[in-house]
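Hi C.,

You asked whether I'd gotten around to modeling the 251-residue construct. I have! Everything is below, sequence then structure, no commentary in between.
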Amino acid sequence: MPEPLLELRGVSKRFGPLEVVRNVSLSLDRGARRALIGPNGAGKTTLVNLISGRLAPTAGDVWLTGRLVTRMPEARRVKAGLGRTFQITNLFRRLTIEENIALAVAEHMGAAGRLWPAGAVRARIEARVAEIMALLHLTAHAGRPVEVLPYGIQRMGELALALALEPKVLLLDEPAAGVPRGEVGLIFDAIARLPPDMAVLLIEHDIDVVFRFASRVTVLVAGQVYAEGTPPEIGEHAGVRALYLGDARHG
């Protein structure tokens, strides 16, 4: 049986007397599309911070591509194959979308500190940037500064930076946060085009979006796994409906 790309074993996080994440275990196989949902304060972002290495767990272990990474720093996890987007964009606003992606690609290729990369390296960077922009349908916006782009396109730029690092596991923390309703479809159309062998964990509040995206859904309540299953199973779970989805949706 293939080894999971990401595995959490009994992960907990305590801040003083407050236990924010409690004994969470889950795994993502190659190509997984899993959503993490739950009410506000359920511990979802804290859990993602534990996976990414931004926080260290109080108990439990995190495994990435078969390696124990529980105490591994955040930057080393990125190099080991973990990518992440954030609820707030981290783009250089005065640079173009193409320049932002090129910086990330150059960093990943080890050429970021070179003023004039060798021709072959520069060609590889340009080819990879073009590939990412084509995948996310960003080519038409390539030469425009980030600060003048619609917010939905800026969020796609954030996704492009994550892809530039060639992750095996991608964490998407509310990728459509703050995006006008009319632009949300662009984000999730782009997510649907991600490489099929990449494992993706999505935090998202829009349940209709979650059910279209995910093959498995994990529900977190008060820091612990409350329910887990396919979208139809979660949609019919009486406790989840009462706690999160709302009975009216299934009236």
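If it helps when you're writing up: Residues 6-250 form a domain with the Rossmann fold fold (CATH 3.40.50.300).

Thanks,
B.
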